[in-house]
Amino acid sequence: MSDEEIFDQILSVLASSAEGHEELIRIWINLGKRLGVCVFLPYIRVVVYEDDKKERHLISIVASPSEEVADELASSERISDEMIISAIKSIVEIYGEPH
């Protein structure tokens, strides 16, 4: 078995063990950190929207070598209601209505 096949199997196990999209994103970010991505992009912000039903939806992931830039790009001043609506519409188009 090649290194790539072993890596693919490991990723498959990690993905299938995640209990929802938020945990999968945490795994993905932690994997990136362990691979050294944080050397180049140490500041990561995850933007999540909570709807009326208290369900959380991933809107954006922002990464930057600058903490100030990451904070600014992930701020509510930058991410407008229109952008959130667009992201939710895309989620519905891809995955169907959120449950």
Write a structural description:
This protein is an alpha+beta fold and about 100 residues long. It folds into 2 domains: about 1-35, no CATH class; about 40-99, no CATH class. The chain has 5 helices and 2 strands. The chain has helices at about 5-15, 20-35, 35-40, 65-75, 80-95, and strands at about 45-50, 55-65. A two-stranded antiparallel sheet has the order 1-2. The longest helix is centred in the N-terminal third of the chain and has 15 residues, at about 5-15. The model has no long low-confidence stretch (mean pLDDT about 90).
From the spread of the alpha carbons, the general shape counts as flat
Radius of gyration: 16 Å
Structural class per helix/strand content? alpha+beta
- How many strands appear in the DSSP assignment? 2
Sheet with most strands: 2 strands, antiparallel
Q: Percent of residues in beta strands?
A: 15-25%
Helix content: 55-70%
Q: Overall mean pLDDT score?
A: 90
The domain count comes to: 2
**N-to-C CA distance:** 39 Å
Unreliable stretches covering 5 or more consecutive residues: none
